[in-house]
Amino acid sequence: MAAAIVTCLAVANIFVTFAYGRSANYGKISIADLPRLFDDAALFDEVYDQRSVNSAPEMVPHWPGSDVKVGQVGGVAVDTNNEVVIFHRGNRKWEYNSFDENNRFIDPTGAIKENTLVRVDPATGHGIESFGAGRFYMPHGLTIDKQGNLWVTDVGLHQVMKIAKGSHEPTLTLGVHLTPGSDDKHFCKPTDVAVASNGDFFVSDGYCNGRIMKFNKDGKLLHQWGRMFEGPVEAAGNADFFIPHSLTLIESRDTICVADREHGRIQCFCAGLNNVNETGLFVSSINKREFGKVFAISYDPNLDVIYAVNGQTYSVSEVLGFTVELSGNIVEKWSPDGLGFGMPHDVAVSPDGASIYVGEIRPDRVTKFRRV
User: Fold this and answer.
1) Of 121, 256, 101, which is closest to residue 193 (Cα–Cα)?
2) Does residue 127 contact residue 115 with C-beta atoms inside 8 Å?
């Protein structure tokens, strides 16, 4: 599309007007519905500006280097210099008895003693630096914003932290230390963060509360939406989440997308960056049988696609990476040597779109893929 869509409510109107030559109200229209509004598929392609994907990502062997040792990988992210940061759990494992019935972390050994954050050279795979020892309890999500700040979530601490570029210490911490909750000041096992250019950020909160929370750059809560719904996806409505596990922001479309893990779908909503009153409005849902569960998603603006990694269910055994168009079409499936993943937990794409990284919690590893 030649010009960016400035509001979420404008999406349906723009496409309906183009197809029918007038503005009309046809009810709620998702991106996935748009192709049926066009009799000519080529016309839809021209309007939607879908870019072709030439070849599936290929695994890069022997990456990272042997000097990079990680435990269960909670998060992986890439900064504007293409350097890779891994957020892992060291020797700690998330086990059935890691939390009590009230979601409080109960490991008596306290914070993880090993460094849990490692920065890796994207070309050589060798470690550049590592830090974070003695601070984190159960690392989960990792995001790097356009200024190079690190944003992490810790499901044991029930906290979200910002670590400024060049620092190893948090400069902003939200949530109450080791204390789960459901009010405006607490999180309960928060899973991920997405950050906008204006400093607004979104938190998926997470394993207990099933909500998305939007904050300004100073950490003031602006809006929240969603609820935990543990029923089947067929009975779930929009913003009914069964563990919102990962976030990705499509800023050019003013859209925030959520990996609704146990429902096996990607749900997208208005981010409200252009119009705060539209924050949280439903935009579209991508629900594919092949997904099973959707653990993580990452948007690539170079190809205008979402990369996703899944998990097994009773009916889905293949654990793969997926390249998904915003219309909902799966255009690629990929995995290490074509053999499938173990249990992927996060996915990230480099700013230039040339490299994709997948972190797993079984086996404990990060795999690099590249487009050739």
Assistant:
1) 256
2) no
